[in-house]
Every structure is written in structure tokens, then in C-alpha cells.
TrEMBL record:
PANTHER family: BASIC AMINO ACID ANTIPORTER YFCC-RELATED (PTHR43652:SF2). It is a multi-pass membrane protein. The keyword Glycoprotein does not apply. One of its GO terms (cellular component) is plasma membrane. Residues 215-298, 302-387 form the RCK C-terminal domain. Coiled coil: none annotated. Keywords: Membrane, Repeat, Transmembrane, Transmembrane helix, Transport. The lineage of its organism: Bacteria, Pseudomonadati, Pseudomonadota, Alphaproteobacteria, Sphingomonadales. This is SLC13 family permease. SUPFAM superfamilies: TrkA C-terminal domain-like.
């Protein structure tokens, strides 16, 4: 025991580096998630006495991860109130008239949205839009998805709040005594990288594959469209209005036909005036269906008992088992519809919609149903052996009347922090309070919008960085590196830091790399007597602008799966884009910083 204590006293710095090396190996092997590795690493520093209890828990006072969490909630509010969906609908409406111009508008929108929102939900939203734009323009979707993702990631490098990585680096830098970063301090260098990246995409598009995805379908696997019917009630105020003047239809709600009596019409129906009992056959995503259900203008779906309302009770999702006795029969004839007071408000089928209308759709195994009913009816459905995965639907209606509040809250965060009225963390927390008290988003949805894995990773890596500093490992590394860099020109430090961060981030977690390298970068700058600010900005952007592997950034993995790309597709175009963007950013830092 005394030997171990003596060893820890003499070789503290070296032991800290050993822990870091083991963490690096674990990150590369990927047998455990980066969060688990980071937490175990922080625990190792604590167990060996390299980090005391007070220091370990001091990382929870760092504002960076808390600000990241607040920004997740604000992004969730914009999605919940339908702001992001509305933007997507506008884009698709434009694409019908000017498909090629819409591509440029989507690129601009992706960059702007990603500058102020977490770019993961932005990319999730844009994936199905890119599939539809590919159909409208005739471009192969594989030539659109990677460029869209690249622009979204570069957009995240335009402001301090564009990525969680930026906020992590800024938070650690502030703890190290540097002057706090403003929201637009990195914008000139991010713009240089974005401009270079867009030019590179235009010149290197021939490197992108053009074969169609084999597995993704028309939406990239990210959106479930349902067939449903909108029923005009007898006393509806909509009776007598033209269908085309309702203002209901968008890329999220597509009119397929009009069912009147026993006849279904598909053509020239927009000028028809609604009558009592008319059924509008539409294709809509789950959120749009829930929004229509709450609006009260129509009754949705089909039921054996016409007095059963879609607005009553709870909505559940259920999958039809392959053993269901009604396979091949009409949906209206499914037994539980007659035995229980429920209403089927939508049916989803992989690859294509059933038809010709909801009631006449022939049931198949694996069809997914949206069903509204009382609590007693739902309990009965859970006991039905022919239905799989019966559970309350997680899809919620948009709160469009709260959209202006969510937009104002996000705008206030940007303006107040940009004008240095209050810090970005404080502004974000006040905005979260506003959107919660005004019910733009429910508390449970707000907390669900926070990526807890990211926050724990940040806290754990902050502890690891502090442990390295307290053990003397940072000083030891700087001492090794300093003699090698003293002979290098000062301007080359920016390039070295950028591409070192880029290389590590292509293999490891961006946030982990950022948290690990920030204190080392600042200590190195102080040792060499140079301004650490350009080096820290190089680290921020270099840790995020990673395009050469599907694991280089979390959104890379999203488009990798949606577009059915090969690993080599990313390498082929990602490596030159990495180099071009890196040279542009570093040159801007040298010339302007």
C-alpha cells in the first residue's frame, strides 16, 4: 500500500497519461460507448487520488453542458410548435415550382438553421425533404444527402451555439481564465470554411455515388406516412367551402381523393364544395394526423359505430400480427372495430400506402395502425393476441399557436448574448423558463429533448481534463511538445491544432476530443507565449468539421444509414473537403486572428 502511495506521489503525471492512453484505446475499439469510457476514466482519476471529491464535483458548476442542455430544449420547442415543420413545408412548396432553386434554398436554410439550432434534428428533418427534392429535380439522392449534411455541419461552425462542441470548448476556455467568447466571435472563420466547403462540394460532386439507395424508400426511413380520412360532420362550418380553399394541404398533408357516397374521385376535386358526410382521403405523417385530430374541424378515420369520436380517449399505435384472422379483409371488417368503441384514424404500410380508401384497405401483416379509444377499449386491445406492440402513441400534435413564443425565445437568446446584455447560458435558461411556463412544450417532452448521453459525456470529460491538469499530465505533455514547436513558425500552430483535432475527431467523439484538447491547447499557447484564442477557435472548428467517415460526426451516421452509402463514399469526398475546409479556416485565422 505504501509502495502504491509512493508511486502515485512520484509518477502522478505519468499515471494520468496512462489513464488517458487507455481511454484513447477504448475509444478506438468502440466496445463501450464514449460516455461509459469517459465516466470510467473520471472514476479512475478519483479512485487513484489524482482528483479529490471537491474537484470532481466542481465540474457540475461548468456552464457549458448546462447551456447545451438548454439549447436542446429550445430546439425541441421549435419542433413541438411546428416551426421546423412549417419551414420544411415552405421548402417543398417552392420545390414544386422551382426545384433546382429549391436546392440552393435548402442549402442556405440548412446552414442558417444549424447555426442556431442543434444540427441533429435539422438533418433528421431534411433527410425526407432531400428524398422528395431528388424526385422533383431528377438528381440522385446520394448526390444530395452528403452535401446537405456537410453544409449543416459547416453551418454549426458559424456561431458559438451552432454545436455543443463549440460550447464545451468555450466553457472550458472561460474556466481557464480566457475572455469569454461571444456568439459571433467564430463567425468570420466559420464563413471561410463554409464558403470553401460549398465550392469543394460543387467541384467534387462527381465523386459522389449516383446509384439509388437499396433500403431507404422514399423518405430515408425517417417519416411514417399514414392513410387517413377527414370526415365532414353534419353541423360543420366547413360545409359549402371549396376543398382547395381550406388551407389544410401541404407536403405533410397530401390530398389523395374525395369519397362521396360510394364514389371515390381523384381528379378535379379542389373546386368541389364540401357536403355533410364527405370524406377527404389524405396521406399525412403522424404529427399532422394528431394536429388535425385536435383541431376539431373534421372527424378522422373509420369506426363501426359512427358516434365514436376520434377526439375522445387516448391514441395508441399497434402493429397487425401476421397471424391476424382478418389478413386480406377490409380494414372496416376487422373484428375489434365492431366489438369495442374505438376508431382507426390511420394506417401505415412500409414502402407504399394501402388503398383505395381507409375503410376499403386490405389488411396485411405488419401494418401499423393509429387507434383512438377509451381507456377500457385500449386495455382490451393490449390483451388482443393478434396485435403487436400496443402502446400509447408518442406522436403529439403541433402547438402552432405557440410558435411565435418559441421563435421569440430563440431570437432573444441570440440577440441578448450577441449584444453582451447577458451571457448565453443565462439567456438560454431564461428562454427555457419562458417556453415551459407558456406551454410551448411540456416538461416531460422538454427533458426528453435533452440528449443526456451528450451531457454526461461532457461532464465526465471535464473531470478527466481537470484530473490531467491536477496530476501534472497537461504540463508534462506541454513540456514534451514545446521544444518541437518552438522551431515552427507561430502561424503553423493553428494548422497543427486544427488538423490534429480533425484527425482525432474522425475516430473519436467530437465532444470528448474538444474537452480533452482544450486545456492542453491553452497551456501550450501560454508556454509558447502566443495568443491562445486563434488556437482554441481552430480546435472548435476542427473538432466539428469532420466529413471523411460515417462516425466523424453524429449527423454523418444519419445520412450514412438513410442514403445506404458505403464507408468509402465518405472517405472519397470527405478527405478532400476536410483538407480544403481546414486550409480555409486556418488561413482565415492566421490572416484575421
Amino acid at each position: 500500500m505504501h509502495f502504491i502511495t509512493a508511486l502515485l506521489g512520484v509518477y502522478r503525471a505519468e499515471i494520468g497519461l496512462c489513464i488517458l492512453a487507455l481511454m484513447f484505446i477504448a475509444f478506438v475499439r468502440e466496445r463501450y460507448s464514449p460516455t461509459v469510457i469517459a465516466v470510467v476514466g473520471a472514476c479512475a482519476f478519483a479512485l487513484l487520488g489524482l482528483l479529490d471529491e471537491k474537484s470532481l464535483f466542481s465540474v457540475f458548476s461548468n456552464s457549458a453542458p448546462l447551456t447545451v442542455g438548454a439549447m436542446f430544449v429550445l430546439s425541441g420547442a421549435l419542433i413541438r410548435t411546428g416551426v421546423i415543420n412549417r419551414v420544411a413545408d415552405i421548402i417543398m412548396a417552392r420545390a414544386k415550382k422551382h426545384p433546382r432553386l429549391a436546392l440552393a434554398e435548402v442549402a442556405l436554410g440548412a446552414a442558417v438553421l444549424s447555426a442556431f439550432l442543434n444540427n441533429t434534428p435539422v438533418v433528421v428533418l431534411l433527410i425526407p425533404i432531400m428524398f422528395k427534392l431528388a424526385q422533383a429535380t431528377g438528381y440522385p439522392v446520394k448526390k444530395l444527402l452528403i452535401p446537405m449534411n456537410t453544409i449543416a455541419v459547416l453551418g454549426g461552425c458559424l456561431t458559438l451555439i451552432g454545436t455543443s462542441t463549440n460550447l464545451i470548448v468555450a466553457g472550458i476556455a472561460a474556466d481557464q481564465g480566457m475572455e469569454p467568447f461571444g456568439i459571433f466571435d467564430i463567425t468570420p472563420y466559420g464563413l471561410a470554411g463554409a464558403a470553401a466547403g460549398i465550392v469543394a462540394l460543387l467541384c467534387l460532386s462527381f465523386l459522389l455515388p449516383s446509384d439509388p439507395p437499396a433500403i431507404s424508400g422514399e423518405t430515408g426511413g425517417t417519416v411514417q406516412d399514414y392513410l387517413t380520412e377527414l370526415v365532414v360532420p353534419q353541423d360543420s362550418e366547413l360545409i359549402g367551402r371549396e376543398i382547395g380553399a381550406l388551407g389544410l394541404f401541404s407536403p405533410s398533408v397530401v390530398l389523395l381523393g374525395l369519397k362521396r357516397g360510394g364514389e371515390i374521385r381523384r381528379r378535379e376535386i379542389l373546386t368541389e364544395e364540401l357536403r355533410s358526410g364527405d370524406r377527404l382521403i389524405v396521406r399525412a405523417d403522424g404529427t399532422a394526423i394528431m394536429t388535425l385530430r385536435e383541431s376539431g374541424g373534421f372527424d378522422l378515420g373509420v369506426a363501426a359505430d359512427s358516434s365514436t369520436s376520434a377526439r375522445e380517449g387516448t391514441v395508441i399505435e399497434a402493429m397487425v400480427a401476421p397471424s391476424h384472422p382478418s389478413i386480406g379483409e377490409r380494414l372496416l371488417d376487422i373484428p375489434f372495430l365492431h366489438a369495442l368503441r374505438v376508431r382507426i384514424i390511420g394506417i401505415h404500410r412500409s414502402r407504399h400506402l394501402p388503398g383505395p380508401a381507409l375503410a376499403e384497405a386490405r389488411v396485411r401483416g405488419a401494418d401499423r395502425l393509429l387507434i383512438a379509444g377509451s381507456d377500457d377499449a385500449i386495455r382490451s386491445l393490449r390483451d388482443n393476441p393478434h396485435l403487436i406492440g400496443v402502446d400509447i402513441s408518442r406522436t403529439r400534435a403541433f402547438r402552432r399557436n405557440k410558435a411565435w413564443i418559441a421563435m421569440a425565445a430563440m431570437a432573444a437568446v441570440v440577440l441578448l448574448s450577441a449584444l453582451d446584455v447577458i451571457g448565453i447560458g443565462m439567456a438560454a435558461f431564461i428562454a427555457v423558463g419562458v417556453i415551459l411556463v407558456t406551454r410551448c412544450i411540456d416538461p416531460e417532452e422538454a427533458w426528453a429533448a435533452i440528449d443526456g448521453d451528450v451531457l454526461i459525456l461532457i461532464f465526465a470529460m471535464l473531470a478527466v481534463g481537470l484530473g490531467l491538469e491536477r496530476a501534472g499530465s497537461v504540463a508534462l505533455m506541454v513540456g514534451w511538445i514545446t521544444p518541437l514547436l518552438t522551431v515552427a513558425p507561430v502561424w503553423s500552430l493553428v494548422f497543427i491544432i486544427y488538423f490534429f483535432a480533425l484527425l482525432l475527431s474522425e475516430l473519436l467523439s467530437n465532444n470528448a476530443v474538444a474537452a480533452l484538447l482544450t486545456p492542453i491547447t491553452i497551456a501550450l499557447a501560454q508556454q509558447l507565449g502566443v495568443d491562445p484564442r486563434p488556437l482554441v477557435i481552430a480546435l472548435m472548428i476542427g473538432a466539428s468539421a469532420c466529413f471523411a467517415t460515417p462516425i466523424g460526426y453524429q449527423t454523418n451516421a444519419l445520412v450514412y444509414a438513410a442514403g445506404d452509402y458505403r464507408f468509402a463514399d465518405f472517405v472519397r469526398i470527405g478527405v478532400p473537403i476536410n483538407i480544403i475546409v481546414g486550409l480555409a479556416v486556418c488561413s482565415a485565422l492566421v490572416l484575421l486572428g
